[in-house]
Write a structure and sequence with these properties.
Chain B: This is Proline/glycine betaine ABC transporter permease. The complex is a heterodimer. Chain A is α/β, with parallel strands linked by helices. Chain A folds into two domains: 211 residues, P-loop containing nucleotide triphosphate hydrolases (Rossmann fold); 123 residues, CBS-domain (Roll), CATH 3.10.580. In chain A, 39% of the residues lie in helices and 22% in strands. The interface between A and B is medium-sized, with 26 and 18 residues.
Amino acid sequence: MSPKLSVRHVFKIFGAGADEALARLRQGKGKEEILLETGATVGVQDTSFDVSEGEIFVVMGLSGSGKSTLVRMLNGLVPPTSGEICIDGEDVASCGPDRLQAIRREKIAMVFQHFALFPHWTITENVAYGLKIKGMPAAERRATALQTLEQVGLGAWADALPPQLSGGMQQRVGLARALATGPQILLMDEPFGALDPLIRREMQEELVVLQKTLKKTIIFITHDLNEALLLGDRIAIMRDGRFVQVGAPQEIVANPADDYVAAFVGDIDRGRVFRATDIARPSETLHLEDNCQRALDRMQQLGRNALYVLAADRIAGIVRYEDLVRDGGAPRDLLRPFSSTVPEAKLHELYAHAARGLPIAVLDDGGTLTGVVELDDLFACLAGGPMPTHRQKREHLDA
Amino acid sequence: MLSPADLVTIPFDDWMNGFVRGWLVPNFRPFFRAAQVPISTVLNMLNAFMLWVPMMASTLAFALAAWRWAGKGTAIFTVLGFAFIDMIGYWPETMTTLAMIVTSVLFCAVIGIPLGILAARSDLAWRAIRPVLDIMQTIPSFVYLVPIVMLFGVGMTPGIIATIIFAIPPIVRLTNLGIRGVRHDLIEAAQSFGSTRWQMLWDLQLPLAMRTILAGLNQTLMLALSMVVIAALIGAGGLGLVVNTGLGRLNVGEATSGGVGIVILAIVLDRITQGLGEKGFGPQPSLMRTLAGFFRAAPRPGGANPG
């Protein structure tokens, strides 16, 4: 499948002498050098990425890293100095103003950091703005706007004015306004950056829920790594106008590309990044019919203190080495209750299970055992050590 | 001491005489005479209308407008002030002055707001318009009275043209300022939804700049009022003529009467247009409620139920 959005070698240079600055940039000169020599400011340099349909792509960077410029180039608010930006294969950077206007009306919508609601219009009129621009009749666009407002839970506020709403509610209106035109791509420029921490968390969770039904292609800008890790299917870390690292949240936390990324990643909550599937070991199991000796042999051989016991394909229970040695009976008589989780569960959700002191079963949707989370691995991962060595084997678990 | 004048003298006044009398007036007089037709038409209609409407009716209309936009105090002041003007016998002159002012402000708005919009949208246009406005605001109005008389003759209409030149800069400046002052992220939002420049102007820039534009309109109105006496020097009538006549005859009473009329008119118009700027054209009490308000006691604090 071809990507929904494809960005190729995009540069943005502000100020006069952009061409000269571009030439020097290609010679490998740095941002400061070019500013001194030509007076031009490098906003974004040589950035390329693809975003596939339905994906949330987060661009994370500090202020001045060029992330806001980058997102504004995607819908042509800032024209790139050079490079291609293709939406469904069509280059936004080089198409004419009429075509760009049509793309903005049909395909791509934006949510702004400070909401950018029109203060002289009611909430409904704000949400209907994109439809008005497209020339939809008043009654029809009001109906669509009200429907979209319901979607973000603000139906009761349809006729209020923006200043009457709290920040979080205003941003819901901003989101509804972007969604009302039915765009395929949503650009979100630090949408939750101006909100209180609690409201921000709430909005992040709501976006995740909403995205499950919307399945939009989202380009999300943030300066908050935790937000990036929570929302992003993939994350790009940006610095001085270029991507330092692009990857899934787990990849970025596990293998930071350089010291800059490592410094960011250092103090994040790893329990909220890694999933059970990231640290699960392959599921070595016993059968219900196995006798005591065989069970002990297998445990010694695998170096494990407890193993799951299967009856047919289902888990019958878990049996501990300790119990087998003390009791000497068949595993089937020594089964203990066990804890299970889903592969996508974040590690912080496993803490309660870990209290049992037994390995946690990872079950797929059908209830089949796909792997086991050993507590040692869980703690090792949280402690920030190298990822468990059996990561390679994870691939076949995912497959 | 040697001074530049010993070497070269420039007959600047002769040049200007030659330019205005020798070239502009003979060649363009018909053009300028024709150009004043719209102004004189509007002025004559307005003047006739103002003089036709009974004093009580126009006072009521102004009092209602004052009530709606500037509050009860201004409404009461309007009634008392207009009654005073009528009683000292200068009602017709006041209405003529009002017609002149309204005509000037109308043309200032019709010319000035589009110019302001143009200036806001193009830095080049602003660079061209700005020095012209600076000149218009600094040049003493007496300087352009003479060429105006030569080109347009004497009378009400040339007086209005002089008033327009004097009063137009604020509305151009403040329209430009208002539109340029619209928050950048709102402009970006409108662009990001694919709006055209016209859609952006109508939906966003003009409504959001309206307060500033109305403040400019208020300034223009006040400047127009301050030109009333000067415009009377070239034949404009109304209260300005009363003041000038009083001045010429050293009749303190007549001059003061005209002056008081101008001040009362100025206060009423200023308060109403300021109120308009602050409250805007947004949701307002209906005419019926405004009317009813005259006969209703002020709302009691706490909203206690009557009876």
